[in-house]
Amino acid sequence: MNSHLKVTQSQLTDVLEISQHRFTLLELPKNEFLVRENQVCPYFCFIESGLLQHAIDVNGEEKTTYLSLRHTFTVSLHSFLHQLPSRKHIKALSDCRLWVIDLPTFQDLIANHPPFHDFYFQLIERQICLIDEYRIDLLTLSPEERYLKLLQNDAVLIQQVPLHYLASFLGISNRHMSRIRKNIK
């Protein structure tokens, strides 16, 4: 889920050496939006601290599609790259310190700084693998097995993220999630 997207100190140092003067600090208070549904995502960002929720509205019910933790990069990628309205919103679940770049800066870094290009390619490659695993898990694992996998691989989410967001992320009702947690303890 998130553990494989965490940036190593070495990777971060290399990327920051090339691009640190290009990123700007954005402090996003809890419950504020990085992007709202139907708006263009303005930034590619690195989360120094805080927690961001990616979510969509399905028939009036908010569904969490992804959770971004500190020391990860995040974006509504399709919206950002193509400057199209986002199909999701990205909201701060806690106060966040984000380092952000706009599209022209991002494109310049990709085109003119091979280490940044390589880093971005590896980041996207890992993300695609994680999305594939997540989709397979949704189709093949029971809710209990998905929760246990989360507990095993991303226990930090269970400590930092409110239960209803985790339940939505795992495709489990709040009530079922409470039963699973009660049975596992």
TrEMBL record:
Domain Cyclic nucleotide-binding: 11-110
Entry-linked InterPro entries: cNMP-bd_dom (IPR000595), cNMP-bd_dom_sf (IPR018490), RmlC-like_jellyroll (IPR014710)
SUPFAM superfamilies per the UniProt record, alphabetical: cAMP-binding domain-like
Protein name, per record: Crp/Fnr family transcriptional regulator
Species name: Flavobacterium stagni
